[in-house]
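[scheduler] slot 2 assigned
[scheduler] job type: sequence-to-structure, two independent chains
[scheduler] chain ordering preserved from manifest
[runner] begin chain α
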Amino acid sequence: MSTLRDLYPAIEPYETGTLDVGDGHVVYWERVGQRGAKPAVFVHGGPGGGISPKQRRLFDPTRYDVLLFDQRGCGRSTPHAELNANTTWHLVADMERLREMMGVERWQVFGGSWGSTLSLAYAQKHPERVSEIILRGIYTLTKAELDWYYQFGVSQMFPDKWERFIAPIPEGERHDLMAAYRRRLTADDRAVQMEAARAWSIWEGETITLLPDPETSDKFEEDDFALAFARIENHFFVHGGWLDDGQLLREAHRLADIPGVIVHGRYDMPCPARFAWELHKAWPQAEFHLIEGAGHAFTEPGILDQLIRATDKFAGSAQ
């Protein structure tokens, strides 16, 4: 058996900055690797998750020039946890602004979880700007996927954690948990917001790995992270990502000429494997890897191995 690939060594950005994208939003960005090498953009999850130093290490720093950015309202972007003018299509437009700022005609798009959703939306709108796509933890943001995670489905796998998730919501409101959380996450009372934010965020942090992993889940309990994560994620999901139901699968034919890799954990709880399989069928030109014994997080060994192999594979491809 071949040795599983792991992250490249820790690396600091060679450049950082902010971009005023309008509507009162200022987006933080950073670049790692070699200026002028193969361009790529890393699209983080959530929405509202922000970037982390570990994500810089998914690419060979001698062969890539990678731009990572905090999407509107999260991480080091400002204003913090802001919902106004914060939609999928605002973020797609931000990506185009960042590409133009970077000065490249095309770039590789790498996204996981919600990042796969945004990457698909961007690539389907701007296929001529994408050299390759690497996707992990496929989320096509259909009503079925949202109901599975926030109403009935994953609740059956994690009954103990589910009880903690629904605890802030009175029984009479539990028929629509996303709406009930929306009311609390947008309440005027900061204490009400924070109770809901922590419960929402911890539910995700504790269900994304196959086995408990405090290194992954602990940050979901931090107040600043939880507030942006929960408010923004709930805001996007209540609105169905401003996508027609099933749109990303129906429009997958627009990706036919773009090389791609799809990586998904067999036991991914937030993102059922069926939707990764459906994307594979709608976009058969992309390599498909369904990883046994793996959950959702990119740090799961089998998932990480395939992601590193994918970035290495495309490192020498023409821009």
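[runner] end chain α
[runner] begin chain β
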Amino acid sequence: MVNTNRTIRPVSDLRNNFADVSRTVHETGEPVFLTKNGFGDMVVLSMEAYESLRFDSRVYDMLLEGEREAETTGERFSPKEALAAMRTAIDGAARV
């Protein structure tokens, strides 16, 4: 389920209310969207949330790569082989 309750603040809050912005991203794990002159300008995330997004993106990219490879090759793996390969990939990604 996607959180539709976004925290939107003016970019000036980085200077004037940095501690509050920082507390918000750390306590909620959600981004704070910053605006400049009424338009979206940037997003602030905690390091933990950012790393989680990067990890999810890498896993998604690997799955897409696997789907493309499956379309172009006749090679198939058993569920046991696939699970072992995923565990190896996840362990390697977690060390990065």
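[runner] end chain β
[qc] chain β: Residues 7-45 form a domain with the YefM-like fold fold (CATH 3.40.1620.10).
[scheduler] slot 2 released
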